[in-house]
Write a structure and sequence with these properties.
It contains 2 helices and 5 strands, in the order E-E-H-H-E-E-E. By secondary structure, it is α+β, with helices and mostly antiparallel strands.
Length: about 90
């Protein structure tokens, strides 16, 4: 099941500056495992010590926030587009 993953600028150092990668995964959890295998350090950037998504990382499958789907158990199918979006904050 090839899916396309959009990599944000802060994580591109792990992917050798690639802004998109393709992967085979049945669930988002499988995708994180695949990304960790191909790009070591990715899991710790996406998940906390309990294995859940970090508060400041948003992941979307075809534009839908996975927190409103099944989180890391969200199923994936061929052609899905996954966007990793780090939260931004700041201002005065």
């Amino acid at each position: 099941m090839p899916v396309t993953v959009k990599i944000p600028t802060p994580l591109r150092a792990l992917t050798l500056n690639r802004d998109t990668v393709s992967a085979e995964a049945a669930t988002l959890n499988d995708l994180v495992a695949h990304l960790e295998g191909e790009f070591p350090g990715m899991r710790e950037r996406l998940c906390d010590d309990t294995g859940e998504l970090r508060r400041f990382v948003n992941i979307y499958v075809n534009g839908e926030d996975v927190r409103f789907l099944q989180g890391l158990a969200t199923g994936l199918k061929t052609g899905d587009e996954i966007s990793i979006v780090p939260a931004v904050a700041g201002g005065c």
